Amino acid sequence: MPKVVFIDHQGADFHVETPVGKSLMQAALDNGVAGILGDCGGSCSCATCHGYVDERWLSKLSPQSETEVFMLEGVPQPRETSRLCCQIRMTPELDGIVVTLPEEQV
Length: 106
Ligand code: FES
Hints:
Ubiquitin-like (UB roll), alpha+beta
């Protein structure tokens, strides 16, 4: 299965495997990764699955929806690489993707 590397705000890394088609938010929750809350269950309405995607994978992601862009405008520390992990579905091309988690979600 493809892998995801989550890095918490203190630099600790968590390596998880997740099936193609599953969201990175759900992958984090399924594996007990702290730093992703997923309060809305993946409906793009809470932004508690905010993460910073490593630049090497940005071009491989599907484009942001208008709703995701809107939700990211409300996170405390947005960056150019900010995405909502519930809106990223694992694909074979994303194997090894690295996502750093913001401090506000601990
Ligand atoms: S889980 Fe709520 S926006 Fe991603």
